[in-house]
């Protein structure tokens, strides 16, 4: 299927590992120019090199997405590196506040929620000039269902979902910018939280597996393929939607 992505300029905020890196690779494979950012310079460079191997323009910059000033610097720099514009913004960053303490709430609100708000605000002038503008926010099933183990994370992702729908309605009149949201279920990848829980908390890991009819967790690429399609011009009548990509997790 021709997605119409070739030549478009994509920014992936939080793109050095896991779902974010898989998304960046997916767009690069479709012929897009891609910019990624993250805090860790080593994983950022490794991701940049992997994306660059597919050919095309690749930009990578270290950025603390919990810092508004850093976002205000990164987004225009990314647009410049991609040829002067942004067509697609992917808000993927997560601080994953793991509990109900003050630190978890501060991290989740500043990174999961406010980074999405701020990056959207900074990218808007570029998206308004795009021929195929789209924003995809990465939320979580924890933002839809109760998140007893990590209420700060779940609440921040629920806010991202509400923000997605609100901006979709608002931005429809601003160059028909589409805004959608992906709510993944449990995703396992090297260095990710579920790989760590597999050894640190096997009871939780196995209970989660038992709650997924397929009997396994998702791979980042399985989430990325959905993101790439929904962000593409091939899905140009889709906006204000929240897509759960979870292998029917929780439906048993």
SSE layout:
Layout (H helix, E strand, L loop, with lengths): L8 E5 L4 H12 L3 E6 L2 H12 L5 E5 L5 H14 L6 E4 L10 H26 L6 E5 L12 H21 L6 E7 L8 H8 L1 H8 L10 H12 L10 E4 L7
Parallel strand pairs: 1-2, 1-4, 2-3, 4-5, 5-6, 6-7
Helix pairs in contact: 1-2, 1-8, 3-4, 4-5, 6-7
In short:
This protein has 252 residues and is an alpha/beta fold.
Describe this structure in words.
This protein is of the alpha/beta class. It has one domain (9-184, 223-241): 3-Layer(aba) Sandwich (Rossmann fold). 45% of the residues lie in helices and 14% in strands. It is built from 8 helices and 7 strands, in the order βαβαβαβαβαβαααβ. The chain has helices at 18-29, 41-52, 68-81, 102-127, 151-171, 193-200, 202-209, 220-231; strands at 9-13, 33-38, 58-62, 88-91, 134-138, 178-184, 242-245. A 7-stranded parallel beta sheet has the order 3-2-1-4-5-6-7, with helices on both faces. Helix 4 links the parallel strand 4 and strand 5 (134-138). The two termini are 33 Å apart.
Please summarize the sheet with the most strands.
7 strands, parallel
What is the averaged pLDDT score? 96
Number of domains: 1
CATH architecture call = 3-Layer(aba) Sandwich
Q: Count of DSSP E strands?
A: 7
CATH superfamily: NAD(P)-binding Rossmann-like Domain
Order of helices and strands: EHEHEHEHEHEHHHE
Report helical residue fraction: 40-55%
Lateral strand order in the biggest sheet: 3-2-1-4-5-6-7
Rough outline:
globular
CATH class: Alpha Beta
Broad structural category: alpha/beta
Instruction: Say what the CATH topology is.
Output: Rossmann fold
Q: What percentage of amino acids are in beta strands?
A: 5-15%
Distance between the termini: 33 Å
Write down the Rg. 17 Å
Note poorly predicted spans. none
């Amino acid at each position: 299927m021709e997605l119409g992505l070739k030549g478009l300029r994509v920014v992936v905020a939080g793109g050095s590992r896991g779902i974010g890196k898989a998304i960046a690779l997916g767009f690069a494979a479709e012929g897009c120019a891609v910019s990624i950012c993250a805090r860790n310079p080593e994983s950022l460079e490794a991701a940049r090199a992997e994306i660059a191997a597919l050919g095309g323009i690749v930009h990578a910059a270290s950025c603390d997405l919990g810092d508004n000033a850093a976002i205000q610097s990164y987004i225009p720099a990314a647009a410049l590196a991609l040829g002067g514009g942004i067509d697609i913004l992917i808000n993927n960053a997560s601080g994953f506040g793991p509990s109900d303490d003050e630190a978890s709430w501060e991290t989740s609100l500043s990174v999961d929620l406010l980074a999405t708000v701020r990056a959207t605000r900074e990218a808007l002038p570029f998206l308004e000039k795009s021929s195929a503008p789209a924003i995809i926010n990465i939320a979580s099933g924890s933002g839809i269902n109760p998140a007893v183990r990590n209420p700060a994370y779940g609440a921040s992702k629920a806010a991202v979902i509400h923000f997605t729908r609100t901006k979709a309605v608002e931005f429809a009149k601003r160059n028909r910018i589409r805004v959608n949201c992906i709510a993944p279920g449990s995703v396992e990848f090297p260095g990710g939280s579920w790989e760590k829980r597999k050894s640190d908390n096997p009871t939780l890991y196995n209970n989660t597996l038992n709650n997924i009819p397929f009997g396994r967790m998702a791979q980042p690429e399985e989430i990325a393929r959905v993101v790439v399609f929904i962000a593409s011009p091939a899905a140009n009548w889709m906006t204000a939607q929240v897509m759960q990509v979870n292998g029917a997790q929780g439906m048993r």
